[in-house]
# Entry
Amino acid sequence: MTELLPRPFVFLRHGETFYNRAYLIAGSPNVPLTPRGESQARDVGVMLRRQAWSHVAVSTMFRAQKTARLALPESELHFYAGLRERHWGALEKTPIQDPMPYFETPEGGESWADFQRRVVDSLNTLLSRFDCPLVVAHSGVFRVICNVTQGHPYGARIGNVAPILCQPPAKDQEVWQLTPWQG
# Structure
């Protein structure tokens, strides 16, 4: 299994989109934030701006970029294609399934192995260069983080703009700790 470098970081999912609100798989389309999603981004920015981030890494997709720009309007943002959401192929714009078929390759879509490899490669590039960066991306990226740190991608969906502190295991622990970041 692919592993993350044992360095802490904070993960932030983008603000609400119309697809999120309708419980549809967005995947690779560049969908906008809803007015609520824009408000969420501005609100979480109050807390995020209290931290001097070593680096703000953002997916190249519009919804993540807009979230980062609204939350951290004075910060320098750095864009990473490897943090893009998974391309779900024929499943895009269809209802979210429970459970999602993470390990299956959807018709015309990206395999889980390829998706996980590009996300982990991007995160490890960041973690090798920066102390506790902020990563603004997508729920699928968080599923990869869960898979490599917890052993599976399943569990409750991460909320929009709910920052998560991702900490490597302490000496007496076996798994990473993924906890709400309080600033």
Remarks:
- The longest strand covers residues 9-13.
- Residues 18 and 68 are 18 Å apart (CA to CA).
- The beta strands are 9-13, 56-59, 78-80, 134-137, 164-167, 177-180.
